[in-house]
Amino acid sequence: MSYNTEREVLMDLKKYIRDIPDFPQPGILFKDITPLLQNPDAFNRVIDNFRKYYSERSVDAIVAIEARGFLFGAALAYSLRKPLIPVRKRGKLPFMTHVVTYSLEYGSDAVEIHKDGIGLGQRVVIVDDVLATGGTVAATSRLVKTAGGVVDSLAVVIELMSLMGRTQLEGTEIYSIVQY
Fold first, then answer.
1. Residue 123 among the catalytic residues
2. Catalytic hit among 7, 45, 81, 105
3. What CATH class is the domain 3-179?
4. How many CB atoms lie within 10 A of CB 55?
5. 107, exposed or middle or buried, with CB in 10 Å at 0-12, 13-18, 19+?
6. In the chain, domain spans
7. HEC per residue, the chain
8. In whole angstroms, what is the distance from residue 46 CA to residue 157 CA?
9. Rounded distance, CA 100 to CA 157, Å?
10. Tens-place pLDDT, residues 8-49
11. Catalytic: which of 45, 66, 68, 88?
12. Does residue 105 have an active-site annotation?
């Protein structure tokens, strides 16, 4: 597939992402990926794109962020035959965990990872559906480093450029499929 044809396919994915104003609170424009998930061709395009990008890289595991990051992270881990390591909200993992708190565009939260989830020096790709302000991914990066891992890069379906999440992730390679 040529660059232009591939770019057209990627731009076509925007029609499977709908805007939900004032969700989860007033002033937030939520990017809903449900239509993309309901369309097997659109979902496959996303996963195929991630797989092509990461198949030539030396990564040891996929770290997926709750909840929608699980959808893409699991499919990518399966297609690359790599371990899947979940990052969840506080109190959701049953074993010993590392915990990091962080700020969201509409509040604060905490994420955790099992202490034995990542081996010393393991190179990981962090996967999430959206890069907004970068708080969740920055917290996840800190979790990976605390566990002894190395963040190879970040893979996201949607990047909200106006929220400048990249500024919190300087030095981290970011692969985003759709930008707004």
1. no
2. 105
3. alpha beta
4. 10
5. exposed
6. 3-179
7. CCHHHHHHHHHHHHHHCEEEECCCCCCCEEEECHHHHHCHHHHHHHHHHHHHHHCCCCCCEEEEECCHHHHHHHHHHHHHCCCEEEEEECCCCCCCEEEEEEEECCEEEEEEEECCCCCCCCEEEEEEEEECCCHHHHHHHHHHHHCCCEEEEEEEEEECHHHCHHHHHCCCEEEEEEEC
8. 7
9. 24
10. 555 589 999 999 999 988 998 999 999 999 999 999 999 999
11. 68
12. yes
- Residues 6+ away with beta carbon under 8 Å from 35: 16, 17, 18, 42
Please write the tens of the pLDDT for every residue from 83-137. Answer: 999 999 999 999 999 999 987 666 788 999 999 999 999 999 999 999 998 989 9
What is the rounded distance in angstroms from the CA atom of residue 132 to the CA atom of residue 129?
10
Please report, as a single letter, which amino acid is at residue 36: L
Q: 114: closest CA among 77, 76, 87, 141?
A: 87
Task: Decide: 80 and 159 in contact? Cβ < 8 Å.
Answer: no
